């Protein structure tokens, strides 16, 4: 409500063009605020993506890479990730497709964290049963292909999210006049959408470092053992993955609430536009004094 009050009371949102009854600054103010709020909301998605390039790879490096007599290289997991990301990266630029894509990416990211937590719990059980807790450099008798599902789920989530977040910029911030420009302008628009995508991911990478510190400090309260130790075998990454799964699920719930509220808001605005409005004042004259 504070966000909508800010938009409603903004002076620039209540200026009208001569001869028109609709405030011309309403869309710009609303969309910039909405995209900023959504960008902050999607940081959790970027944190999940960041741990895929760190902890997932670190886990795989200590697992058995052989199947019978054939040794598979570690990059095969990254190949599975890239294939899933490219296959699920196609998304139409429409409001419905973007909304569904963002929701689907968060569902997949949360599911990825759940699968990763279950696999990590099994890995720790194998480490304990094999007596490798204090031997972090030894190969764990567990095939690395246990990690394939979480790499594939992460690739699907990243592919859909990357396309949706860029399309969100294109649909929300590009005005109708800008959309009618030449091909050169479209190239610049795509570049700006890519910059927005990279900005969200960059904040997520920094947020992943902060999340590890915060979660570690919270887990150590009351004299308990910190979830993050010097080695993976003595750490509790499974608990961290469960925490991220819950965080993404909460963000998904907030996203649904925002979608419902914005849908109701758009309905009211559309009914307001259909009504007859009084004559507009001068160009620079605000409606509220």
UniProtKB/TrEMBL annotation:
The keyword Transmembrane helix appears for this protein: yes
Keyword Transmembrane listed: yes
Top-rank taxon, per record: Eukaryota
Keyword annotations of the record: Membrane, Transmembrane, Transmembrane helix
Residue ranges crossing the lipid bilayer per the database entry: 31-58, 95-119, 195-220, 240-269
InterPro entries registered for this protein in UniProt: MFS_trans_sf
Protein name as it appears in the record: Protein NRT1/ PTR FAMILY 5.5
Organism: Prunus yedoensis var. nudiflora
Lineage summary: Eukaryota, Viridiplantae, Streptophyta, Embryophyta, Tracheophyta
